[in-house]
Amino acid sequence: MFSLLPWRGLALAGVSSQSKGNHPLCGATLINSCWVLTAAHCFKRFGRDPSRYVLRLGDYHTEERDDFERSLSPELIVIHRKYHSQGSEYDIALLRLKGTEGNCVAFNPHTNSACLPAPGNKWGKRPAACVITGWGITDSEYSRTLLQAWVPLLPTWKCKKRYGERYTSRMLCAGSLSDRRRVDSCQGDSGGPLVCQGEGGRWVLTGIISWGHGCGDPSFPGVYTRVSRFLRWIDQVTNNPPKI
Fold this sequence. Notes:
Thrombin, subunit H; mainly beta; six-stranded antiparallel beta sheet; 2 domains
């Protein structure tokens, strides 16, 4: 990945274990003042107890305190009820931040929420490229700084051809199929955003980094949870969350 910020405002957060040190377990994306969207498989290792995690909003360098970085505590983790830890389907989770209703994170020029896809919206033309973001593995070690990279969104038939029945309509795949340009998400990027530029130049949270076969293999592009298929679930959870 290379460092490039294609949109204004920081919606990305790193989800870290209280016991694992500074490096994020996963990425996550702020979708409103109180809710953060990430991948369900991020909680396989340390479980669903929110007290075990901290979110670092606006983090850039994992070993330094950044100017606009804030550490936030989740009070609730909601994993999609159809997600199973041995599979790849329904790999989506929501974290609610501590704070009064609707007022958990104050937005400013350096912190904002990501835009979700419009209900029923379909790309009139597939975006030429989207952007992935994370602190994942590059050259066999985790990146200390936040990195981003352009990746092309691929048609369904190409994804099906490479992954077969494991790939479903609730997923997207993206990445270069060329040996000359191996750009991909990798371990440590999970839960982070795949954002695509829609009509009018608006950047939309289109996917959640989920799974794949290796990293940077042109035969196996990265697979992402398709956010548009979960808008109703996101709306239900954020407007009527389970009791703590």
